[in-house]
C-alpha cells in the first residue's frame, strides 16, 4: 500500500489510502459575510416526563418535556450555545450528528470518548459553529440507550442571500424515524448486558415519536460471541451458552472508566488507551464464507488508531458472515467522507479499486455496508482530536462495534485542538 502521496492505513468493517481495512464482526457552502451569522442560545433540560404510547404511560427521558425533542433551526455560519441541564437519573451526553466540530471535539458528545458524562444534577454547555454545512441533520443522546427518546432534528439553512440548490419548497416538515419500547429502554439494555443475549426488540417503529397506524392506540402520522466459563449461567444467554460481542479487526472496543479518551489525551494521562489498533485483520479469511468458530472470539481492548494531521485515509468496511451477514450503518464523528465504491462478497484490493468513483463520489457521515459485502470511503484527516467510528445500531455499539481515531495536531492554532471549556464534565 502506498505511503507518501497517499498514506495507507488499512482497518476490517476494511481497508484505508492510510488504508484502513475494517472487518465488522457481528451543502454545498456559499460565501456570505460573517456579519450575517447569528448566535443561538438554547437550554435543554433532560428530565423524565410521562409519555403515553401503545396505551401505556411511561416515565420517559425527554428534553424540555418533549418527545421527540426540540427542532434546532440555524443557518450555515451560525453558532449554537446549548446548555444541557441533567435533571434525569442517568448520566447523559449529547451528540450533534453530522456536525464536523472543527478543532472542537469537546462539543462532539460521545460518552467517555470526547467527554465525561453530565451527571445527574449537573450541566454542560455545548458551543459550536456551523462551518460550510447545509441540510437536515439530527442531534441525539450519546450515552447508553438514552438515544431511544432523547433526539431531535437539526436543520441548517443556507446563508442569507444564498439560494437553495433546488426549487424553494412550499413547506418543510422534518420526519424523524425511531423506535419505541413498551418498557424502560435502559432496563432493556441492562438485561441484555446481564444475560449476554441480544436485547429485546422494540415494540413499535415511530414517525416523529408516534407509532404507525397499525399499532394499538396509535395516532396517524460484524458480530461475534464471547465464550463463557459457565455456559449454563444466566449471564450466558447467547447462542450455545455464549455472550454476544462485536468487533472491528477482532478488537471489541471497551470505553474507559477513569477518564474520557480526549481528556486523557489532552491531559497526558497514561494508561487509559493504547494506539496499536490493527490496520488490517490479524487473521485474514473468507469473510463472507463459512467462518471457523475459532475466529468468532474478539479481544476486548481500548485501542485507538493514530493519524498525522493531513493524512489521506481510505477505509474499506467489510461485513462478515459471523452469526449472520448484516447491514451495519457505520458513522464517523468529526468528518465527512467520500463513498468511492461498494460491492458484495470479499473486497479484492487488486481489482476492486479500479472500479472506484473518484470523479463525483457522494459525501456522507454515515454509510451502510451491503450485507455480505463491502463499501470503501476516503477522507482527509484535517480535524485534530479523537473521533469515534462506530455502528449506529445501539446494540452493536454496546457490544463493542466501534473504535476511534487519534488525529494529531498540525502546525499552528488553526490545525490544533482548541482548549477545553471550563465547565467540561469530569469523570
Helices, strands, pairings?
Elements: E1 20-25, E2 39-53, E3 56-63, E4 72-75, E5 79-86, E6 94-97, E7 123-129, E8 135-141, E9 151-157, E10 177-180, H1 185-195, E11 204-207, E12 210-211, E13 223-227, E14 242-248, E15 251-253, H2 261-267, E16 299-301, E17 304-307, E18 312-319, E19 329-332, E20 337-344, E21 363-364, E22 366-368, E23 373-380, E24 385-391, H3 394-399, E25 402-407
Parallel strand pairs: 1-18, 2-5, 4-9, 15-16, 17-25
Antiparallel strand pairs: 1-14, 2-3, 5-7, 6-8, 8-9, 10-11, 11-12, 13-14, 18-23, 19-22, 19-24, 20-21, 20-23, 24-25
CATH fold category name of the largest domain: Immunoglobulin-like
* Whole-number mean pLDDT: 88
Strand order of the largest sheet: 13-14-1-18-23-20-21
From the spread of the alpha carbons, the general shape counts as: globular
Low-confidence stretches: 1-16, 26-34
> CATH H-level name of the largest domain... which superfamily?
Cupredoxins -  blue copper proteins
Q: What CATH architecture of the largest domain do you see?
A: Sandwich
The portion of residues assigned to helices is under 10%
Count of folded domains? 2
Structural class: mainly beta
Amino acid at each position: 500500500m502506498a505511503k507518501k502521496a497517499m498514506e495507507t492505513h488499512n482497518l476490517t468493517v476494511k481497508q484505508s489510502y492510510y488504508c484502513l481495512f475494517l472487518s465488522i464482526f457481528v451543502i454545498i457552502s456559499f460565501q456570505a459575510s460573517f456579519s450575517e451569522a447569528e448566535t443561538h442560545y438554547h437550554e435543554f433540560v433532560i428530565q423524565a416526563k410521562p409519555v403515553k404510547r401503545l396505551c401505556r404511560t411511561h416515565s420517559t427521558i425527554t428534553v424540555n418535556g418533549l418527545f421527540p425533542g426540540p427542532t434546532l433551526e440555524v443557518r450555515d455560519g451560525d453558532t449554537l450555545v446549548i446548555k444541557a441541564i441533567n435533571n434525569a437519573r442517568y448520566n447523559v451526553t449529547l451528540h450533534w450528528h453530522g456536525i464536523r466540530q472543527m478543532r472542537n471535539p469537546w462539543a462532539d458528545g460521545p460518552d467517555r470518548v470526547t467527554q465525561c458524562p453530565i451527571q445527574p444534577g449537573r450541566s454542560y454547555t455545548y458551543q459550536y459553529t456551523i462551518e460550510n454545512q447545509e441540510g437536515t441533520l439530527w442531534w441525539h443522546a450519546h450515552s447508553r440507550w438514552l438515544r431511544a427518546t432523547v433526539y431531535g432534528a437539526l436543520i441548517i439553512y443556507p446563508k442569507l442571500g444564498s439560494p437553495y440548490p433546488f426549487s424553494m419548497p412550499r413547506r418543510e416538515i422534518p420526519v424523524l424515524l425511531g423506535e419505541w419500547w413498551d418498557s424502560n429502554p435502559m432496563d432493556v439494555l441492562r438485561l441484555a448486558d446481564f444475560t449476554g443475549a441480544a436485547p429485546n426488540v422494540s415494540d413499535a417503529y415511530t414517525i416523529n415519536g408516534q407509532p404507525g397506524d397499525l399499532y394499538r392506540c396509535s395516532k396517524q402520522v460484524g458480530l461475534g460471541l464471547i465464550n463463557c466459563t459457565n455456559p449454563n449461567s444466566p449471564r450466558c444467554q447467547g447462542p450455545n451458552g455464549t455472550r454476544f460481542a462485536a468487533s472491528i479487526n477482532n478488537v471489541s472496543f471497551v470505553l474507559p472508566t477513569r477518564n474520557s479518551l480526549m481528556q486523557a489525551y489532552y491531559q497526558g494521562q497514561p494508561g487509559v488507551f493504547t494506539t496499536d489498533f490493527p490496520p488490517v485483520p490479524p487473521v485474514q479469511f473468507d469473510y463472507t464464507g463459512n467462518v471457523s468458530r475459532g475466529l468468532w472470539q474478539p479481544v476486548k481492548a481500548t485501542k485507538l488508531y493514530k493519524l498525522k494531521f493531513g493524512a489521506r485515509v481510505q477505509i474499506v468496511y467489510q461485513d462478515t458472515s459471523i452469526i449472520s451477514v448484516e447491514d451495519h450503518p457505520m458513522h464517523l464523528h468529526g468528518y465527512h467522507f467520500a463513498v468511492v465504491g461498494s460491492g458484495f462478497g470479499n473486497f479484492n484490493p487488486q481489482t476492486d479499486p479500479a472500479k472506484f468513483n473518484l470523479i463525483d463520489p457522494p459525501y456522507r457521515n454515515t454509510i451502510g455496508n451491503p450485507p455480505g459485502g463491502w463499501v470503501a470511503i476516503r477522507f482527509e484527516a484535517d480535524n485534530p482530536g479523537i473521533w469515534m467510528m462506530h455502528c449506529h445500531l445501539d446494540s452493536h455499539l454496546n457490544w463493542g462495534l466501534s473504535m476511534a481515531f487519534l488525529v494529531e495536531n498540525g502546525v499552528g492554532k488553526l490545525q490544533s485542538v482548541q482548549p477545553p471549556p471550563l465547565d467540561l464534565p469530569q469523570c
